[in-house]
Amino acid sequence: MLFHDWETVVGAEFSRGFSPVEIYSQPSGRVLKLVTSSSGMATARYVEPALLQRVNQFFGAPYIATIKTTQGQIKKILKKKILLDSANEASTLDEALQALGKHLNVS
């Protein structure tokens, strides 16, 4: 749910600059791995406490111990509702698949 509701959890500004990749465990606790652009790497150290607070607030407990940020391509998570709305507006299966392809940037 964290990945699906990422923008709601951390806010629009943070969700544009940081994207969740995985949560994994280490002896020191759970780590949330985020990906960001090269410019995001410069600000990551300053915004990580705010991101950590918002993520743990979402879980209702200190579930994540630390955040690890890596540089890479930020992938946006599509909301199911957008895809379903597009598919429901289509009158044929072919139109529904074409609408889905447009949202996924697939030709």
Task: Explain what the structure shows.
The protein is an alpha+beta fold. The protein folds into 2 domains: 6-71, GMP Synthetase, Chain A, domain 3, CATH 3.30.300; 78-107, no CATH class. It has helices at 6-10, 12-17, 38-59, 80-89, 93-103, and strands at 18-26, 29-36, 66-71. A 3-stranded mixed β-sheet has the order 1-2-3. A hairpin with a 2-residue loop joins strand 1 and strand 2 (29-36). Helix 4 (80-89) packs antiparallel against helix 5 (93-103).
Main sheet: which strands, in order across? 1-2-3
> What would the average pLDDT be, to the nearest integer?
82
Estimate the global geometry from the Cα principal axes: elongated
* Residues in β-strands, percent: 15-25%
Structural class comes to: alpha+beta
Round the Cα radius of gyration to an integer and report it. 17 Å
Per the CATH scheme, the topology name of the largest domain is: GMP Synthetase, Chain A, domain 3
Number of strands: 3
Count structural domains: 2
What is the distance, rounded to the nearest whole angstrom, between the alpha carbons of the first and last residues?
Answer: 29 Å
Tally of contiguous helical segments:
5
Give a quick account of the main beta sheet: strands, pairing sense, barrel closure.
Answer: 3 strands, mixed
The helix content, as a percent range, equals 40-55%
Order of helices and strands: HHEEHEHH
